[in-house]
Amino acid sequence: MDPEFPPFLMTLLAVWLFILGLCVGSFLNVVVARVPHGQSIVKPRSRCPKCGHTLSWYENIPLLSWLALRGRCRGCKSPISIRYPLVELLTGLLFLACLRRFDWSWELVAALVLITLLVPLTFIDLEHWILPFSLTVPGIIAGVALAVPRGMEALRDAAIGAAVGFLAFRLMEYLGWKLFRKEALGGGDKFLVAMLGAFLTWKALLGILFLSSLQGAVVGVLLIALTGRAGPRTEVPESEEPEKEAPEPELTMTWEFTKPGLPLWRRLVLVPWCLLFQPIPDEPKDEAGEEIDWVPGTTNIPFGPWLALAGLEILLLAPWLSRVLPPQLALLLGGLP
Ligand SMILES: [Zn+2]
């Protein structure tokens, strides 16, 4: 931005961006709470999940309301998760970090949109072990579209980033199954990588793979040593007896297009669809043909948060990383700027 701008005005704009981040974070709390259950993020107004008390505007102010209410619902006094103010503060601080890195530029806009996608994806994956397509797919489109104002070269790099990221993780998904007969990656991970590739271009993909696996492995091993499991537990519905362990469902893998009795044209249509999108392995089914809910084992980690963290590190710290890392490693991390 114009260097002639008086410093106090720049500070004022930074404060405004921080407050904007808090408000976006407040909205992201709604996304985290509702999107995994397929609920609307617009209606109804926010209410207490325990007693249904509808929040008035002054109970909905980011950060301040939680502090003023001392983390309790005004209606029923049941505790409000610390996640709410945390997500708000985190989003506000990440917005400021983006401003510091990119100043007032087109890159800043793209970075803020990326933050707005990564924060809810991280918290949803931590709680539900899913990365909803309703966030990742629009995210891929947004990443490519936001490269347009920066010229043809940026647009090409973003499109290649999305495609290569998706295909590389799709291949790893398949090879993981071939080699270990286990579901090595969640099906949603490749869409998140494609999204990161769109925003950060193909140059960042190796670095994302390297940083996410390294940090995920180190923290996962530490968590197993300390708590006995690498990832968070999923909520077990109250009706289910926790002692009665369900037998591990048999995992199989049959390409849809190889099934007997299909007309040739359907087979041909199915081939590209299967290669790109069919779940690997097949969704486990019980005798009645209903899908069995997957329960994470003790050594499973949700990979989405680690991918998101690696993406954030490259987004915000790339110039610093390229200074402190040995040049060969910095080059491996995608020719950091
Ligand atoms: Zn309540």
Write up this protein.
This protein has 337 residues and is an all-alpha fold. It folds into two domains: 1-95, no CATH class; 105-234 and 296-337, no CATH class. The chain has helices at 7-34, 64-68, 83-102, 106-128, 133-145, 152-180, 189-200, 205-227, 264-277, 304-324, 327-332. α4 (106-128) runs antiparallel to α5 and α4 (106-128) packs across α10. The radius of gyration is 22 Å and the shape is globular. The structure holds zinc ion (ZN). It is found in: Cell inner membrane; Cell membrane. This is Prepilin leader peptidase/N-methyltransferase. Its EC number is 2.1.1.-, 3.4.23.43.
> How many DSSP H or I helices?
11
Low-confidence stretches: none
H/E order of the elements? HHHHHHHHHHH
Give the domain tally: 2
Rg, rounded, reads: 22 Å
Question: Strand percentage, roughly?
Answer: under 5%
Average pLDDT confidence is 87
Largest sheet: none
* Portion in helices: 55-70%
Name the ligand types.
zinc ion
Class inferred from helices and paired strands: mainly alpha
End-to-end separation in angstroms reads 21 Å
The shape, in one word, is globular
The number of distinct β-strands equals 0
